[in-house]
Amino acid sequence: MTVSRLPLDGIRVIDFSRVLAGPLCSALLGDLGADVIKIEPPGGDDYRAIGPFAHGESGLFGAMNRNKRSVVIDLKTADGQTLAQSLCAQADVVVENFRPGVAARLGIGYETLSARHPALVYASVSGFGQTGPESRRPAYDIILQALCGLMDATGAPDGEPTLVGDSVSDVVSGIFASWGVLAALVARDRTGRGTHVDVSMFDATLNLTAGLVARYAATGVAQSRVGNRHATSAPFGAYRAADGHFVVAVLNNKLFAGLADAIGQPGLAADPRFASDASRCAHEAELRACIERWAATRTVAGVNADLSAAGIPVAPIQSIRQALDSEHARTRGLLADAAAADGSTVRLPTQPLKFSAYPVTRTTRAPRLGEHTSTVLEEVLGLDAATIASFAAQGVIAESIQENDLV
User: Is this entry keyworded Transferase (predicted)?
Assistant: First the structure.
């Protein structure tokens, strides 16, 4: 029997983060029912001004800030810091991704907030963590991909180091941050005390490259670039057909024998060069030539049909459009329609997890800047209209700022 509430209903998150890693962390919590209150400066989150734009709003901002309420507070004012501290005292979780030391200067550091609210779970997402010689260094995804070995391990053997095709350092840091918050909430239920969750994008990106790290830890040898093939297995990579490319993944002798039969060369399975995964990897070039001679007279669709029928793991190389427009993605509900601020419809990414005991996770549009300032201050802090109006007149807070009014 399912229940009507989502897993994090009743959890309140105060989100001071901006751009990608921190906002993704809080968005994932909001998907599961948490009340995420996004605190923005009068100029708003930088992502509001980054394209692509649809319906006058940033698609990137919309995706990373779904299921949130926006409150504008100027943390450079004493009253603004007091308001923010009071909101945090009524919360379960705080998320921030300032450089170390900045949150403390703004009056919302962990020491200040936890002294007032010991049960608070406080997540800091930064480029290099709260400690270490690089901790004050700013970071962007490309910086982390470069420093963590990801670019060095990506690309053709005789080519240049290559960026992975999305901001994976930011994304994996946001995922680890949400995981850390949930672990801290479980521990708080047992102990009654919160904790400071220190999330380093450098650490998270190295953990993302789990295979590279494991190989180095075991052998002391850093993996070099191998292009579109596996470093230690074959045939396991991308191959050319008549009209494009496809991938296969063969990790054992049984699968290899099946592949050899499927491409009309059953004798390959008995060839000493291809007798084991290690020997196949050592002779990957000869094996590739055999596969691509067979595939050269077939389309990618034909290759996939033939190898799938033989039970070989195979796939075409799809674009993101093809992936998201696929019947499987639609069945899994990986994009959801939501009502935009202007009443039109926007598509937003959804929580990838499914829970048998809970309904489908929610997906609502990102808020307009300051859209919920009055509502939150009244609801959470009990402030009356006159007090809220006074703060607004002083520039401590702001309400419903239109994106085209930002400078």
Answer: yes
At 304 the pLDDT is 97
pLDDT digit string (tens) for 34-58?
A: 999 999 999 999 999 999 998 888 9
* Same domain membership, residue 285 and residue 199: no
Q: Is residue 217 part of a domain?
A: no
Confidence tier at 4 by pLDDT (50, 70, 90): low
Among 55, 117, 230, 328, the active-site one is 230
Distance (Å, rounded) from C-alpha 363 to C-alpha 348?
7
Q: What is the mean pLDDT of the chain?
A: 94
Residue indicated by tokens 């592949």? 259
**Which residues lie below 8 Å from residue 127, measured CB to CB, with a gap of 6+?**
99, 134, 137, 138, 139, 143, 144, 200, 201, 202
Asked whether residue 32 falls in the same domain as residue 177, the answer is yes
**Residues near 354 by Cβ (< 8 Å), separated by ≥ 6?**
none
Examine the domain organization and report whether 110 and 200 are in the same domain. Answer: yes
Whether 245 sits among the annotated catalytic residues: the reply is no
Burial (CB count <10 Å: 0-12, 13-18, 19+), residue 175: middle
Distance from C-alpha of 184 to C-alpha of 202, rounded to nearest angstrom: 21
Q: Show the tokens assigned to 132.
A: 């270490």
CATH code (residue 202): 3.40.50.10540
Paired tokens of 265: 């060369």
Question: DSSP label at 116?
Answer: H
The boundaries of the domain holding residue 274 are 236-321
Other CB atoms within 10 A of residue 52 CB: 7
> What pLDDT digit, counting tens, does each position of 310-330 carry?
999 999 999 999 999 999 999
Q: Is residue 219 part of a domain?
A: no
Of all residues in the chain, what percent are helix, strand and coil, respectively (each to 5)? 40, 15, 40
What backbone phi and psi angles, to 5 degrees, belong to 11? Answer: -90, 130
Check whether 208 has a pLDDT greater than 50. yes
- CA–CA distance, 162 with 209 (Å, rounded to integer): 15
